[in-house]
Write a structure and sequence with these properties.
With 209 residues, the chain is mainly α. It is 80% helix and 0% strand.
Length: 209
């Protein structure tokens, strides 16, 4: 890069290299590959490679645990996925704050892939409700701040899915009916209030876009 040479690997090549090392390495080779890929992807401004590195981090941290038979690998994978989903959200906030549109979509996709996938594989309706409602907030608010209609639509869709899971949950559990309904209704009201406030604040820019 110092010599102004072109990037021979590319984002797809770096991602494939990471996947290969993580699958075949069974150790800390995957973590080293992720570190090197992150460094180069940041230098070459390759958002797809950065997103791939972030999404593959939980898997790379889980493969070394195969050396310990009594270790709960699935629970560890779920925990690290949630942690790196939070890292994706932090990356998203920084990208929006810096008005760096190149990394907004990859950060959002990273949060989706890690957060929503973990919630769905948990097969727990409470986690699904919380994950989709949280992603609705993040995605919808981001869509307003970045003037992206597609993300606002995705955010509204996530809100509908969270309420669909809530209906399924209320059908299974009558004991927590009033408490769960009140809590989700409160969060939804706060969410829509923020959406309304942001929309009114950026009304002129949204109408122009």
């Amino acid at each position: 890069m110092d010599r102004e040479l072109s990037d021979l690997s590319g984002a797809l090549g770096r991602s494939a290299w990471m996947v290969g090392l993580i699958i075949l390495g069974y150790g800390f080779a995957g973590l080293i590959a992720i570190g090197l890929t992150t460094r180069r992807a940041y230098q070459w401004r390759q958002p797809f490679a950065l997103m791939s590195a972030l999404v593959l981090c939980p898997l790379a941290l889980t493969t070394p645990t195969s050396w310990f038979e009594s270790f709960n690998h699935i629970e560890w994978l779920g925990t690290t996925s949630v942690i790196f989903a939070a890292v994706s959200v932090g990356w998203l906030i920084m990208s929006v704050k810096r008005d760096d549109g190149l990394f907004v979509a990859p950060a959002l996709w990273g949060a989706h892939l890690l957060g929503l996938t973990t919630a769905l594989f948990s097969q727990q309706l409470v986690m699904m409700i919380g994950a989709f409602l949280l992603m609705s907030m993040i995605t919808w608010w981001t869509g307003i701040l970045t003037l992206r209609t597609s993300w606002r639509v995705v955010g509204a869709f996530h809100l509908g899915v969270s309420w669909l899971f809530l209906i399924l949950y209320l059908g299974q559990s009558t004991t927590a009916l009033s408490g769960a309904l009140l809590f989700i209704s409160l969060l939804t009201a706060i969410h829509l209030f923020v959406v309304t406030t942001l929309t009114q604040t950026h009304m002129k820019k949204l109408s122009e876009s």
